[in-house]
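User: Round two. Same drill as before: sequence, then structure, for each protein.

Assistant: Same drill it is. First protein:
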Amino acid sequence: MSYEAITAETEGPVLTVTLNRPDKLNAYTAQMGAELADAFHRADADDSVRVIILTGAGRGFCAGADISAGAGSFDTEGGEGAKNFGDPAARGARALGRSFTHAMFDCKKATIAAFNGPAVGVGITLALPTDIKIASTAARFGFVFARRGLTPEAASAWFLPQIVGLSQALRWCLTGNVFGADEALRGGLVSEVVEPEQLLPRAREIAREIAANTAPVSIALTRALLWRFASAQLPFDLLKVDGAIVQALGSRGDVKEGVSAFLEKRPPAFPGRVTADMPPQYPWWGEGDG
């Protein structure tokens, strides 16, 4: 599929999705959200893609929502917000936000956000469902919603405390401050900070490590288990799921290959595919839970 607001380029097992409105610092629009959802859905259906890197073109990651319509930029009911967020196919920005958030959250592939520059408002919340987050020293972040009369969106009021803890999430969201990569690292939003020229090489290094050493089915199941049970009050519902999954996987080719490769001191060649070989326990959540 041809995209306008993003690009999607595959190199070996790695798909790099780039927010591609550099003249607008990659400001978010409904079209960008729809294209992100499509790219992640397509990656899920392609067994040759093992890892997805999300980054931005030019000097910004995403400057937030496109507010070129001025004061009415977020008025999707009848105001100027319809210009950027009133896509009728998506039934407005809220429905579209659900679309790309679900696509990224439910993705079966490992995901890496590489923040090359400012990531503010929806520019940071759209990347919260990614698994690994790294930043260049040029990156800046801001959960600025309260300063615009808004509230956090794209389920970020759930994602952000999951990642950084409630206390840190409250501080960033209630002040609306814009902060640098070092504070993001200290607060746990990103796991490492590198110089700008090292950002994409480092992201690709992590991606290649995952692709070369892990089983695709295991990655899909592991990220689902961690994201869906990390906030559970008790471990017992998880015990009902993870035990059954391990038992189901134990007799399969991936486990046999993983053990054999370890004993033979060679790289693994896992046969399992996420499009055909997920265990019967997957998905274990209800249809209305995403």
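Second protein:
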Amino acid sequence: MYDLIIVGGGPAGSSAGRTAGRLGLRALLLEKEVFPREKPCGGALSARALASLDFLLPPALQAQALTGARVCYRGRKVEAHLSAPYAFLVSRSDFDHFLLTEAEKAGIEIHQGEKVLGLCETDGSISVRTPVGVYRGRCALIAEGAQGHLKGRARRRETRAEQGFAIVTEIPVTQPQAGIAEIHFGMSRWGYGWIFPHAGYLSVGVGGLLPAMPRIRERLQVFLRENGLPETSRCRGHVIPMGGIRRNLVNGRIILCGDAAGFADPLSGEGIAYAIRSGQLAAEAVHRALSERIEALEEYEAACERAFGGELRDALFLARLVHRFPAAFHRLFSSHPRVVAAYLDVVAGIRSYRSFLAWALPRMPAYLALREICRPTPAKKI
């Protein structure tokens, strides 16, 4: 009988496993892949995510530091730079493998290449079934990502309007322009394209809200051509949950974290910081529940709300404004380096989304009209 069975070995599952081990829980982590494994992702690790780790990331894994950003929209280009890195470019394959290794060092049991087929709660415990056999635990943590099927045991599945989708490829180059990430607006009403300069290659991708991204492979090829890059058929896609939407995170002894819980920035799509922190909070909640009372597991939702719930809702509010009035906001972002630098402060964790909104909205030419549109309509007397 394990105290905790973790499904998924990505940043959320590994962070939960490391915390569980350090708290003295007997934990088992089940991962369907064998690490290191290929992971489709732009590979930008925000300073906020780096600060969430409870250990130092080896410099070798922080391949490129991002201090600048170039925002492009309909021929406009504006560039901004910060004095300190707001993000680091990492190989997700190496980064995730390192996190899993750190979890193992904390003393938990890890089974790689073992896919979870199903789970059920009976007699005050969780039974988890794999091709190898059945494991029993006092609690189960689902951290299998946005595309997993087990999260439905705790909450409803997302609608297409609550999901994003991104597709990414890697283009070999000899000398990428280090330190500057390119963001291209106008790829779709609800998305953007990016070019990140890794060592020896460019990570190039497009993403946005799922219903607004038909024929996404064709969009990627067009994006490559428009930026003078060779077209390629080697690309991979992944689902991104729309963060900021209230979802059930706990059902009985089952708990969700990371992308499975819907924790991702609805504007940028970044989810690693929230995966790491939610994994840590989930393991802490399990520890309290098993040492005090099992009902304490439900306090995990309140812990996530305190840690980043308000930030994700503010990000969702901004995302909906951006996508409802794309031309106005895209002109704002591509109008002056100060605007880009202010948003980079959000990525770095220096500034909150609410602070950015308070700073940016008055600088919009269409601010007064937007305020009138967003003002609630008073109820009519009958």
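Residues 315-374 form one domain.

User: Perfect.
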